Amino acid sequence: MKNPTPMKIAINLDLDKSYVSRVINKLNNLKYIEKKDTKKDKRTKLIYLTNTGKQVVEQLNINSDKQIQLIIDNLSNEEQESFYQSINTLNQLLEKGGINHVEN
Length: 104
Description:
A hairpin with a 7-residue loop joins strand 1 and strand 2. A two-stranded antiparallel ribbon has the order 1-2. 62% of the residues lie in helices and 10% in strands. The protein contains four helices and two strands, in the order H-H-E-E-H-H. The chain folds into two domains: 1-49, Orthogonal Bundle (Arc Repressor Mutant, subunit A), CATH 1.10.10; 51-98.
């Protein structure tokens, strides 16, 4: 998502704005994100990952990859191929719905 704001995040994830605000504040207190004023409107805050936040995301991705690999390792070649096809189909459907992969 380009130029993420609390409102964009709430809309994109179809979540309540007050809930998103609480989560953002908690992540900010943990120093995982920082909020910065926009140049156009001081009331609007842009959300950025801090270096600590980037490290947390990287570790989550590593752990997720390990879990997926454990699952895949227990599948036959035919089941693995079916799994990969299903993931590709899911990605295509998400992209059609306007949801793209998370960008760094």
